[in-house]
Structure formats: structure tokens, C-alpha cells
């Protein structure tokens, strides 16, 4: 069954929204729309609720069909037995699409609940009605201010599109990303994916220029074959991070071969992700870390990185992590070493690459400028640079950190190479957790990927490098 | 080419014997050691003489999954006398260890020169349909789980990568003075199996275990084909 793209377009980018069946005292769905750019109407038949809804300033109607003007998105939060009426009314009204928060369908495993879901699906298919869910949080659109969590921001989009089978992870990934300064264009919580499934959403995001990076949380595929094909095609055009949750196979069947018994969901998904060129993530941190590296860095030319840590011990630790992630930490040219020797403090410091740099740049930011200029001109550095930043003193005076970020900005503009920052809690240049969180946000706001430790930064940059190598190897070009 | 499948279907079987499996694979151009059916000790000796010694003899039974566990495998049979004796002994042992199992005879084949053992397999995933597996083969494959998967149909790059991504790949490159395996031959074999299971959707599971990988070439020395139940075939 295919839903027209124009219908999906209206559903995901609505100009008007009707909330059906929202309840007090919080009226979460109406409240989530308080920054929405278009008209919001309520449909509620419960007199007790209607009074409060009207008191809050919303126009309430008894049926979707009574709502004036075009309705692009119907958010359905009614009890499950009422859902067929809502769907029928939405169809009659000619609504663009439905997002169904209501749960208690096929996911319960009850035959009657599954039957009810089939009934809704049949109605939607017949009418070509896009249905998001059921059993989902629905649609977040950053530009329009359509939200399913009050903490989701309204503002410019353009960085990422997220699809999540879980509402919780959809919110978690959105909030985690926005804390790092990533502008999540849209998030779609897909729930039971009964009418629109993961393939429809992936195709939509593939063709959405406002989502140059795609992140998906999936526990399974409704249409595995099509998903394989769409994912393979999409990953050649733009990066797709796939975080696959849930390891057990439902309804294990008798197998009579070694291959059959070894073909766990995990093993098959792992193969699928490698085969399609998607980027694997194994946790929400992985997903967000990778998102930040994809959004905020450009394509590296190679795997040779410059590593700048603040102490001797940290310079060993950072090297271990980047080598583990498949990077090389090359020696620099004789010319670079000659230039570094002119100003670098080698007592309690080192510039072999990795850099042990606190004694050189701790007070004198201009020395960081010199280091970065030398690195930018050294051809051994073709994979980018990673730097340990400190939060100390940031709250009293952010100017030092800002000056450092200006220099890092210049480096990445000049070289076109990735630059990632790591700001551990504690450590030589560290500070208390709260201060570090604020300082990290300031780094994210300047659109640098920032990580709480070397391991996560190295792993994220490694996944990005692997993705670009994949794309080169299949001769694909960026959109 | 579908004789073996038709024969199994006619008998309501979904598990093909080794002889049937290899016939099917051979017809698809997949390198296998030739296995021939014998139902008496005398016939086994005659077939053995035609094929050439040394001989491997394996029990043929749709009811026995692990042949060596019931005394159903005899290796290194050097002459006709050894083959006849092995046949009688095998029948006695298997009947004792697996009473009531249907026994169709034995498969008789030339004992292949040992090579590096790998497994090439296919199965039908409930979400993605036909998928393929590659790994280091032999009896520990299910313990070590050092295998890689791809969705069928595979492209050459998939075959190349799935060989290289297993942890044991250095063994295939050659270790401690041993020559490496013919990786191009393995890639070819994987792609042939991919084409085979893609075209023959009635095949639900397939194990080539082991495949002997040589410095020059590769050959499947054991094979097991499992058909989908008839109802599932219609769905596919």
C-alpha cells in the first residue's frame, strides 16, 4: 500500500492541527502545541473536559467534521474503542493525516486488539489516509513547533531527521541532540507502524533536503525486504545511523542447520547494516555521538589525526582510543617539528603527536593558534584533529574558551577536516560536572561535536570516517 | 535439476539427503565433492572402486542430523575390503544408536585433501527473507559464532567483505608458514550460493559445512539442504 507523498507531506508538516480527546488537568497534546505556528482546535465530547479546554482558549468541537477550514494533522488521543469513529471522521473531513497516540492494539498480543488495529488499517488504506502509529508519540517538527514533548525546541531545522519505534527514545534522541546544539528538523515516533512503516518514513527522509542526516531507532522491520532496499539506496546518498534495539527473536522456529541456528536477529541486522552502508549504533549515546560528528564535521581525506591533550597521561589515553577506533596518529614532518620547537614548552610537555600541551597553551592561547597552523600545513594530518578542552574558569569568564573555539573554527575552515572536542568531567583542565555541562553546551552552540570522554569521541569520528570510506568505495556522491 | 526436490516433495520430506543436496548444488555449478548412493556393502565397494580411494562413507538418513554422533561416518577407507567392512559395521552401529531411524543407505565419496574448513550457509530470515552466512567451519562453529551475514542477493563486494570481517580471517590469509586460502574461489562460491538460493526460494536452509578452502580452489565436502514446508513456499 502506498500513501501519496503529498498526504505524508501534510501530515509531517501540518499547517493546522486538531487534537481529539485530550484530557486534563495537563492537556498534554494541546499544551505541546503552544508554540505551533498554525491554528489548533480541540475535539472533545466530555463536557467536564470541554469547559477547561475552552477556558484555556481553544475552540472545541464535537466532531472533526465540524472544524472550520483545512485540517492537516489529527492527533488522536481517545480511548481505543473510539478510534474507528475518529478515523472515519478524519476521512470524511479530508484531513491530511492522523497521528495516533492511543495504544492497546496489536502490541498487546490480544486477538481483539489486533483485530481493531486491522480495522483501522483497512479504513486508512481504502482512503489513502496516512496514519502515524498507533501507540506512538507522533510528529515533532522543529520549524513549525509541532511537538510531542514540551522540552522539544521550536526553531530553525536543517540538521537531522529522526525515526523512532519507541517514543521514549525519540524524545531522548531529540533532547540529547538539541543539548549538543544539533537542530533536529523532525522526529517521528512510529509506534506500531501499522499503515506507514519504517520504509515510508525512510523514503520520506531520503528525499527531504532538510534532513541531511538520518537516525533511526528500530526494534524490527515491518517490511524487511523493502527496508533493505530503501536503506541501501538511502545510505549511498546521506548518512543513516541505525540503532537496533531488542535482541530476541519472536516466535523462534525449529531450525535444522548450523546457519539457521546462528542467524540471530543481532547477527542478521549486523550484516544488513554493513551491507547497506548504514552506520551502526548500539545505544542512545552512540546514536547521539554519531549524529553530532556527522552534523558538525566534514569528510576526512584519510585516517591520520592530530591529537591534542592537556597532560602526558591524557595524551597516552587519547592515542589509545583513536587507534582503537581505527585512526593513525602519525609523526609530523621535520619542518613541523622545527617550527614547534621554536615555542613549545617541552619541559612537562610534548609535541610528537599526540600533544601534551597544557604547559604550552594553558595560559597562552596564541600558542594554540601556532600549533593549529602547523597542523593545517602538515600533509600527514588528513583525518582531522581532536582536542581536549577544559571547563575551568568558563563560568566566570567564557572568553578564553571562546578564543580557543575561534582558532578551532579557523582550523576546520582552512583544512576542511573534522575537528572534534572532548571535555571530560574532572581531569587536568576539568571542573565540577555542572560547570562542564554548561561549557559543553557552549562548544555545541558553536557547532563543534563535543564528547565527555576520548572513547566516545574517537568512536563517533571512527564511525563517520568508515561511512565516508564506504561511500567512496561504492562510488557514491553526497547529495 | 529439480529431481532431488521433486523426489523429496513426493515423499513429503523437507530434508534432502547429502547425495540429493550435492546433486542439486552440482547442477547449479557449485563445487562439491561427488557423493553417490549405495544401499549394500557390495554396491558401496563397487562405487568406491569407480570413484577412487581413499573413501569417506556417511550414513544417509532423513532422521539423523548429527551423523558422527551415531557412528555414521567412516573416514580413510583405503580399499574395497575396508569399504565393505565399514558398511556392515556402520549399519550395526547406527541401528543400535538410533533405533527406528529410516536408513536410505550410505553416501560414498572420495576423501578430499584436507583444506582450511569454512562454512557457507543460507537460511530464511523471518524479516528479511534469504540471508547468507560465512564463517570458519567445522564442529565448533556454533560455539565460536565467528560468522558474518548478508542479505541475499549478494554483490561481489558483500562476498569480499563477509570473508574479511570474521575474526578468524588471518587463518584464511595463511598463518605459521601455511599458504593462504584461495579467497577469490571462496568469493565465487559465496556468490554462486547466493544466486542459487535467490532463484530457488523453496530452499529454506542450506549448510555447506565444511567447505575445504585450498590455496587453489575450494570445494564443499558436506552439504545439507532443507526445503520450506509447502505452504510457506506459496507465500514466498
Task: Offer a concise description of the structure.
Chain A has 479 residues and is α/β, with parallel strands linked by helices. Helix content of chain A is 42%, strand content 14%. In chain A, helix 6 packs across helix 11 (284-296), helix 11 crosses helix 18 (454-473) and helix 15 runs parallel beside helix 16 (399-415).
What does this structure look like?
The complex is a heterodimer of chains A (479) and B (236). Chain A is an alpha/beta fold. Chain A has helices at residues 5-12, 28-32, 47-55, 83-93, 111-127, 167-179, 198-206, 224-237, 258-262, 265-276, 284-296, 312-324, 334-341, 358-361, 365-376, 399-415, 433-445, 454-473; strands at 17-20, 40-43, 59-61, 73-76, 97-100, 131-132, 138-141, 160-164, 184-189, 213-218, 240-244, 279-281, 305-309, 355-356, 384-388, 419-422, 450-451. The two termini of chain A are 28 Å apart. The model of chain A has no long low-confidence stretch (mean pLDDT 94). Chain B has 2 domains: 34-110, ATP-grasp fold, A domain (Dna Ligase, domain 1, 2-Layer Sandwich); 116-235, ATP-grasp fold, B domain (D-amino Acid Aminotransferase, Chain A, domain 1), CATH 3.30.470.20.
Outline the fold blueprint:
The complex is a heterodimer of chains A (479) and B (236).
Chain A: H1 5-12, E1 17-20, H2 28-32, E2 40-43, H3 47-55, E3 59-61, E4 73-76, H4 83-93, E5 97-100, H5 111-127, E6 131-132, E7 138-141, E8 160-164, H6 167-179, E9 184-189, H7 198-206, E10 213-218, H8 224-237, E11 240-244, H9 258-262, H10 265-276, E12 279-281, H11 284-296, E13 305-309, H12 312-324, H13 334-341, E14 355-356, H14 358-361, H15 365-376, E15 384-388, H16 399-415, E16 419-422, H17 433-445, E17 450-451, H18 454-473
Parallel strand pairs in A: 1-2, 1-4, 2-3, 4-5, 5-6, 8-9, 8-10, 10-11, 11-12, 13-14, 13-15, 15-16, 16-17
Antiparallel strand pairs in A: 7-9
Chain B: H1 3-10, H2 18-27, E1 35-38, H3 41-51, E2 55-60, E3 73-77, H4 80-97, E4 105-110, E5 116-125, E6 129-136, H5 141-144, E7 147-151, H6 156-164, H7 169-173, H8 183-199, E8 203-213, E9 218-220, E10 223-227, H9 230-235
Antiparallel strand pairs in B: 1-4, 2-3, 2-4, 5-6, 5-8, 6-7, 8-9, 8-10
Helix pairs in contact in B: 3-4, 6-8
Amino acid at each position: 500500500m502506498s500513501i501519496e507523498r503529498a498526504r505524508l507531506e501534510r501530515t509531517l508538516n501540518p499547517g493546522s492541527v486538531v487534537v481529539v480527546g485530550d484530557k486534563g488537568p495537563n492537556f498534554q497534546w494541546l499544551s505541546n502545541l503552544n508554540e505551533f505556528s498554525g491554528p489548533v482546535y480541540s475535539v472533545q465530547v466530555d463536557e467536564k473536559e470541554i469547559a477547561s479546554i475552552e477556558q484555556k482558549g481553544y475552540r472545541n468541537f464535537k466532531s472533526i467534521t465540524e472544524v472550520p477550514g483545512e485540517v492537516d494533522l489529527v492527533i488522536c488521543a481517545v480511548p481505543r474503542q473510539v478510534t474507528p469513529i475518529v478515523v472515519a471522521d478524519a476521512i470524511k473531513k479530508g484531513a491530511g493525516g492522523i497521528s495516533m497516540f492511543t495504544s492497546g492494539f496489536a502490541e498487546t498480543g490480544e486477538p481483539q486488539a489486533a483485530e481493531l488495529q486491522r480495522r483501522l488499517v483497512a479504513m486508512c488504506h481504502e482512503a489513502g489516509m496516512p496514519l502515524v502509529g498507533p501507540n506512538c508519540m507522533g510528529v515533532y517538527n522543529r520549524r513549525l513547533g509541532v511537538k510531542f514533548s514540551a522540552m522539544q525546541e521550536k526553531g530553525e531545522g536543517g540538521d537531522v531527521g529522526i525515526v523512532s519505534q519507541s517514543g521514549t527514545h525519540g524524545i531522548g534522541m531529540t533532547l540529547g541532540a538539541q543539548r549538543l546544539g544539533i537542530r533536529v528538523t523532525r522526529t517521528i515516533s512510529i509506534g506500531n507502524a501499522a499503515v506507514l512503516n519504517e520504509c515510508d518514513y525512510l523514503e520520506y527522509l531520503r528525499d527531504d533536503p532538510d534532513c541531511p542526516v538520518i537516525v533511526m531507532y528500530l526494534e524490527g522491520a515491518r517490511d524487511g525486504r523493502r527496508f533493505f532496499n530503501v536503506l541501501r539506496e538511502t545510505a549511498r546518498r546521506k548518512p543513516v545511523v541505525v540503532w537496533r534495539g531488542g535482541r530476541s527473536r519472536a516466535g523462534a522456529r525449529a531450525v535444522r542447520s548450523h546457519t539457521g541456528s546462528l542467524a540471530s536477529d543481532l547477527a542478521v541486522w549486523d550484516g544488513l547494516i554493513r551491507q547497506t552502508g548504514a552506520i551502526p549504533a548500539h545505544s542512545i549515546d552512540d546514536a547521539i555521538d554519531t549524529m553530532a560528528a556527522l552534523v558538525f564535521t566534514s569528510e576526512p581525506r584519510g585516517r591520520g589525526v592530530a591529537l591534542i591533550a592537556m597532560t602526558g597521561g591524557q595524551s597516552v589515553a587519547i592515542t589509545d582510543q583513536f587507534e582503537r577506533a581505527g585512526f593513525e596518529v602519525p609523526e609530523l614532518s621535520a619542518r613541523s617539528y622545527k617550527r614547534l620547537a621554536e615555542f613549545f614548552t617541552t619541559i612537562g610537555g610534548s609535541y610528537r603527536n599526540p600533544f601534551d600541551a597544557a604547559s604550552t597553551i594553558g595560559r597562552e592561547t596564541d600558542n594554540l593558534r601556532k600549533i593549529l597552523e602547523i597542523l593545517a600545513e602538515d600533509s600527514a594530518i588528513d583525518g582531522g584533529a581532536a582536542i581536549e578542552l577544559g571547563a575551568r574558569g568558563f563560568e566566570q569568564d567564557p572568553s578564553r574558551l571562546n578564543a580557543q573555539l575561534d582558532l578551532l573554527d579557523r582550523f576546520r575552515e582552512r583544512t576542511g577536516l573534522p575537528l572534534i572536542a572532548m571535555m571530560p568531567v574532572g581531569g587536568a583542565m576539568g571542573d565540577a560536572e555542572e560547570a562542564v555541562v554548561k561549557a559543553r553546551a557552549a562548544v555545541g552552540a558553536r557547532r563543534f561535536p563535543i564528547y565527555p570522554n576520548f572513547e566516545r569521541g574517537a568512536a563517533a569520528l571512527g564511525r563517520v570516517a568508515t561511512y565516508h570510506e564506504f561511500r567512496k568505495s561504492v562510488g557514491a556522491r553526497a547529495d | 535439476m529439480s529431481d532431488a526436490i521433486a523426489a523429496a516433495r513426493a515423499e513429503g520430506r523437507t530434508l534432502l539427503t547429502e547425495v540429493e543436496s550435492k546433486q542439486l548444488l552440482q547442477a547449479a555449478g557449485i563445487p562439491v565433492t561427488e557423493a553417490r548412493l549405495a544401499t549394500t556393502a557390495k554396491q558401496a565397494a563397487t562405487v568406491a572402486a569407480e570413484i577412487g580411494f581413499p573413501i569417506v562413507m556417511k550414513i544417509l538418513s532423513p532422521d539423523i542430523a548429527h551423523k558422527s554422533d551415531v557412528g555414521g561416518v567412516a573416514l580413510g577407507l583405503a580399499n574395497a575390503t575396508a569399504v565393505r567392512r565399514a558398511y556392515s559395521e556402520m549399519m550395526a552401529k547406527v541401528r543400535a544408536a538410533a533405533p527406528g531411524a529410516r536408513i536410505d543407505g550410505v553416501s560414498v565419496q572420495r576423501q578430499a585433501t584436507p583444506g582450511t574448513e569454512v562454512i557457507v550457509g543460507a537460511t530464511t530470515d523471518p524479516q528479511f527473507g534469504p540471508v547468507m552466512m560465512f564463517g570458519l567451519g567445522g564442529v565448533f562453529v556454533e560455539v565460536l559464532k565467528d560468522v558474518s551475514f548478508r542479505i541475499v542477493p549478494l554483490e561481489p563486494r558483500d562476498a569480499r567483505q563477509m570473508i574479511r570481517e570474521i575474526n578468524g580471517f588471518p587463518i584464511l590469509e595463511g598463518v605459521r608458514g601455511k599458504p593462504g586460502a584461495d579467497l577469490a574461489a571462496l568469493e565465487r562460491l559465496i556468490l554462486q550460493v547466493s544466486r542459487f538460493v535467490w532463484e530457488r526460494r523453496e530452499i529454506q536452509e542450506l549448510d555447506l559445512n565444511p567447505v575445504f578452502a585450498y590455496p587453489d580452489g575450494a570445494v564443499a565436502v558436506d552439504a545439507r539442504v532443507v526445503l520450506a514446508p509447502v505452504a510457506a513456499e506459496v507465500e514466498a
